[in-house]
Specification:
442 residues, mainly alpha, 20 helices
Length: 442
């Protein structure tokens, strides 16, 4: 399967979850006050960051399946067992914090503790799915919770009129448990591994050591995507955080397309030769730049109108923040694809870790300098600066470590453009994208 076809399938499978999460954001922004929505959005960011640390086995599970060719059931079972241990450790730590705390601090600690375990297990299983190129199941494991969250929010927050940040957050956390239960059922064939095998200590150690780097890189990358929002609520106001959160949510929609390409090429990047992996990565970068450019330009042009249409007229004020974030996302979009090369082909997740850490440092410094002076829009400026610096560094590094040339990365070829009508013709001759062989057999 070529990059265009694989990316299209990945995109189709992810759209349902992304649309539900977008609808959830729109709904909560409309039913909560700006201040309550700012608290709700910031709390999810904080929980997600902690969950990303705990979900360190996603990258290592994918690596062992695609690059090391370990059986999916073996990796999934061992990764799930480790994930449950990590989740339990988070619950114990948060419970200890809650014992010595009171009021909002205790409530926040307990909510975070309850949210972490299902996030850890879902992402670990998702790593195995992307390793075997089971795109449909990977998409569900990562984004399926959005469907549950939307339904619970409609019932609990809207219909039953519990319109506080804590109530909305409670519905979001409950959805995590429903989602992990569904993922476990879908993956039922894997759980029979321990009926005939003992836990593999060597594999477990490999998952932990490799996962420690990928997990830390994932946490820093996630935090890098969200630190501007946390600093806005700290340095500006809850209302400013609510306005800024809507701009972030719309700009994040552009990640859908670059991530789809990264997911579609993940298994091939790890399983092929260094030369072929370089070619696949370069092709993915070209498609990413092409698609995200086509989408980012109209978003930047119509930013205030888009925010007003989706969230209400009071959010049009965040239009310039959205324009800056759209430009930042376009610049940074290829990095997930380049990160695949560093991690799953070279087996050097510390490269992605170093790049993410540098970007985070630049973002924090820029935010501290700019937000107090210009308000929430300073978060967008800080993001644009940090993404630009990191994109340049990562591109230079990839060119040195691979066989690709600048022209292969940035010059769109005729074959790239021809891939889209060819894909359209292929889809027109069949009923739909369907599931891949891996999806059916995983």
């Amino acid at each position: 399967m070529d990059i265009a076809a694989g990316s299209f399938l990945s995109l189709v499978y992810r759209v349902g979850g992304i649309v539900s999460l977008a609808a959830l954001t729109i709904l909560t922004a409309r039913v909560l006050s700006e201040a309550e929505f700012g608290i709700y959005a910031s709390a999810i960011v904080a929980i997600g960051a902690a969950g990303t640390i705990a979900a360190s086995f996603s990258g290592s599970a994918g690596y062992y399946v695609s690059n090391k060719q370990r059986p999916a059931a073996e990796v999934a079972s061992n990764a799930a067992l480790l994930s449950l241990g990590i989740g339990a450790a988070f619950v114990l730590v948060a419970a200890a914090v809650a014992v010595g705390a009171s009021g909002n601090t205790r409530e926040a600690a307990l909510l975070a503790a309850l949210a972490i375990p299902p996030i850890v297990v879902r992402t670990a299983i998702g790593g195995v799915y992307v390793g075997v190129n089971a795109l449909l199941r990977y998409a569900f494991s990562l984004h399926g919770y959005g469907l549950f969250a939307l339904a619970l929010t409609v019932v609990w927050v809207v219909l039953l009129d519990h319109r506080t940040a804590v109530d909305a957050l409670g519905a979001w956390i409950a959805a995590q448990y429903l989602a992990v239960g569904a993922v476990a059922v879908v993956s039922w064939r894997w759980w029979g591994w321990f009926a005939h095998h003992a836990p593999d200590r060597r594999l477990a150690w490999g998952l932990v050591t490799f996962g420690a780097l990928t997990g830390l890189a994932g946490f820093i990358s996630y935090f890098n995507y969200r630190v501007d929002q946390l600093l806005v609520i700290a340095l500006d106001s809850q209302e400013g955080a609510g306005l800024y959160a809507t701009a972030v949510r719309v700009a994040e929609g552009l990640w859908l397309f670059s991530t789809a390409i990264a997911v579609a090429s993940y298994a091939a990047v790890g399983a092929t030769t260094r030369s072929e992996s370089s070619r696949i990565t370069a092709e993915g970068v070209r498609h990413t730049i092409l698609i995200v450019t086509v989408l980012a330009l109209p978003i930047a042009l119509l930013a205030p109108w888009i925010l007003g249409l989706l969230f209400g007229a009071e959010y049009e004020e965040a239009g310039w923040a959205l324009r800056l974030l759209a430009a930042a996302t376009l610049i940074y979009a290829p990095q997930s694809i380049l990160s695949n090369y560093y991690t799953v082909q070279l087996g050097k997740p510390w490269i992605s870790l170093a790049l993410a850490g540098s970007s985070l440092a630049v973002s924090i410094v820029a935010s501290l300098l700019i937000i107090p002076r210009v308000g929430f829009i300073g978060g967008a400026w800080a993001t644009l600066i940090s993404y630009s610096v990191t994109a340049v560094a990562s591109t230079v590094l990839f060119l040195r470590l691979s066989e690709a040339t600048p022209r292969e990365l940035f010059v769109v070829r005729r074959m790239d453009l021809e891939a889209y009508p060819r894909l359209a013709r292929r889809l027109a001759t069949r009923r739909g994208p369907g599931a891949t062989t891996s999806d059916q057999s995983a």
